[in-house]
Design brief:
33% of the residues lie in helices and 20% in strands. It contains four helices and eight strands. Strands 3, 4, 6, 7 and 8 form a five-stranded antiparallel β-sheet that branches. Strands 1-2-5 form a three-stranded antiparallel β-sheet, with no helix packed on it. 21% of the residues are buried.
Length: 203
C-alpha cells in the first residue's frame, strides 16, 4: 500500500521550508480532508514561524539559530502527526495522498536474481563427503543444495539441504558411488534459479 514519506531530517533547511510550504498550500481548501488533525491553522502557523525563523537565522546568530532549530523540530512533528490523519483518510488512494502535497515513499525494486554458474563438486577431507561450491549469485538469499542418488530425470526426487551460504558439504555418502548435485538459489519475491547438474564419485 502506498504511504507518505516523512523523512524530513534528510532535507536541508531551505528544502524543508519549500516542502512544508507546498504541503501547507496543498492542504488549503482540499476537499479530500474535511477535518484535518492538526488543524490547518496550526499547520499554517507552524510553517510561518519556521519560515520567519529561517530568515532570521541567516546571520547565524546563536539565539536565532536555536529558534530556527526549535521551530523546525516542531513543524516536523506536526507534519508527521498530520500525515497519520491523511493516510487514514486516503485509505491507499494514490490520488488522494498526492493531493496532500506530501511526497510518497518509493516502492523498493525487487533484487534481480542472477543466473547461477555451474557448481564445483569435490571430495571432502573426511571419507564419504562431497563439497559443493557455487559462486555467490547476485540477489541470492538462500541456497538449496540438492542431491540425487541416480542419474536425474524429470521425475527424480531431490534430497534438499537448505543453507544460507553457497558452499555446502554432503556427508555420510557411500564410497565409490556416483552422486549428482545441483543448487536451487532463492531470491526476493519468490524468485528461484537452478544451477546446472554436476556429478562426482564419493571416496
Amino acid at each position: 500500500m502506498p504511504s507518505i514519506n516523512t523523512s524530513f531530517s534528510r532535507l536541508s533547511d531551505a528544502d524543508f521550508s519549500t516542502q512544508a510550504g507546498h504541503i501547507n498550500i496543498s492542504m488549503m481548501d482540499n476537499v479530500n480532508f474535511a477535518t484535518p488533525n492538526p488543524t490547518l491553522k496550526e499547520l499554517n502557523d507552524a510553517v510561518t514561524r519556521y519560515s520567519n525563523a529561517l530568515l532570521a537565522a541567516k546571520d547565524l546568530g546563536k539565539n536565532a539559530v536555536a529558534e530556527k532549530n526549535e521551530s523546525r523540530l516542531g513543524l516536523e512533528d506536526l507534519l508527521k502527526l498530520l500525515s497519520l490523519y491523511i493516510m487514514n483518510v486516503a485509505n491507499g488512494s494514490v490520488t488522494v495522498l498526492t493531493s496532500s502535497g506530501y511526497p510518497l515513499t518509493k516502492d523498493r525494486e525487487p533484487s534481480h536474481l542472477g543466473t547461477p554458474d555451474a557448481p564445483t563438486l569435490s571430495n571432502g577431507i573426511t571419507p564419504g563427503s562431497l563439497v559443493c561450491d557455487l559462486p555467490t549469485v547476485t540477489g541470492g538469499k538462500g541456497y538449496n543444495h540438492q542431491m540425487a542418488f541416480e542419474l536425474p530425470t524429470e521425475s527424480t526426487l531431490w534430497t534438499t539441504n537448505i543453507a544460507t551460504t553457497s558452499k555446502f558439504t554432503f556427508s555420510g555418502l557411500q564410497a565409490g558411488k556416483q552422486y549428482w548435485v545441483r543448487v536451487a538459489v532463492s531470491g526476493s519475491r519468490k524468485q528461484l534459479a537452478y544451477s546446472s547438474v554436476v556429478s562426482q564419485f564419493a571416496q
